[in-house]
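Researcher: Batch entry, complex prediction.
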Amino acid sequence: MNAQTTPSPAELADRTVQLLACSMFAVALVFCLSVAEFFASESTAAIIDIAVKFLGVVILGLMALLYFWKFRPMSSDQRRRHLAEDGFLQIAFRNAMAKSWMLSFVVLVVLQALDNLILDRLPYMPLEIVIQGVLAIMLLLFSIAFVSFTRTSSSDE
Amino acid sequence: MSDELGNRIRVFRAEYKLSQADLADAIGVSRKTISTIEVGRFVPSTVISLKIARYFDVPLEDVFFLTDGG
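Model: Structure tokens for the complex:
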């Protein structure tokens, strides 16, 4: 790779944000599958379990690749500047985090308020499954918010 | 999206014969950031705004302006 095709630090920071957002969506899928596995039949649960493990390995692999390939070689000053970028995607990421947190809070408060109508009618679930479900909701809301903030509509050259 | 902030970045780029990528590289941001600023989807930080104005060697008010007429 020659110098002209090496991405600038800002482009690299953008790619990091995009990779992080994709990974968070993948983690949301893992949590959704884990919850689905609890309710599925034995044969289906076995297939879901394999899918969960595969996705988990892929996500960990991507994160490890990002860390060892890009982050670890950086100096602490470069790392701090990389994470403090205030470009469009970085601000969109932070806004999506804030919005998804607020929406998750509202969803949980509404569920708690409607416990007679909704929560009491749900089958018994171990605490682990409940936590995974909540995390899945939060991460899916983040993914939707991030895509909403960053969908392409600007002109290009 | 900001309805209150306009900019003349595209005009300055044309004067200097710069692409969005060229300007982005010059001031240390991504091309996506420049393109979203130009179309009003993204309000840049003070630092990015000042970097753009400094690059074109013009006052900040020549690059960015309020559109409410106030």
